[in-house]
């Protein structure tokens, strides 16, 4: 049996919204708003990719 995992990492837009100081709470709202756009887009792209099953 194989399991499928999708790894999400911050993209360029997310990193720009987060900024260089990850602990800066003032950027939290902007980072969340950006993620609400970029994460669904990443997931839609992943669903369209065929053959992304990890087989050790």
Summed up:
This protein is an all-alpha fold and 56 residues long. It contains two helices and no strands.
Span between N and C termini?
Answer: 11 Å
Q: Fraction of residues in helices?
A: 40-55%
The profile of the biggest β sheet is: none
What is the number of helical segments per DSSP (H or I, 4+ residues)? 2
Order of helices and strands: HH
Number of strands: 0
Query: What is the percentage of strand-forming residues?
Result: under 5%
Radius of gyration: 14 Å
Could you list the spans in which at least 5 consecutive residues all have pLDDT below 50?
A: none
| Overall outline | elongated
Can you give the mean pLDDT? 84
- Structural class, judged by helices and strands? mainly alpha
Any key phrases for this structure?
56 residues, mainly alpha
Explained architecture:
The protein is an all-alpha fold and 56 residues long. It has a domain at 12-48. It has two helices and no strands. Helix 1 (12-18) packs antiparallel against helix 2. The longest helix has 21 residues, at 28-48. The radius of gyration is 14 Å and the shape is elongated. The model has no long low-confidence stretch (mean pLDDT 84).
């Amino acid at each position: 049996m194989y399991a499928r995992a999708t790894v999400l990492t911050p993209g360029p837009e997310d990193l720009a919204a987060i900024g260089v100081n990850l602990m800066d709470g003032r950027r939290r709202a902007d980072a969340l708003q950006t993620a609400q756009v970029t994460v669904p887009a990443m997931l839609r792209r992943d669903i369209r990719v065929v053959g992304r099953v990890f087989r050790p």
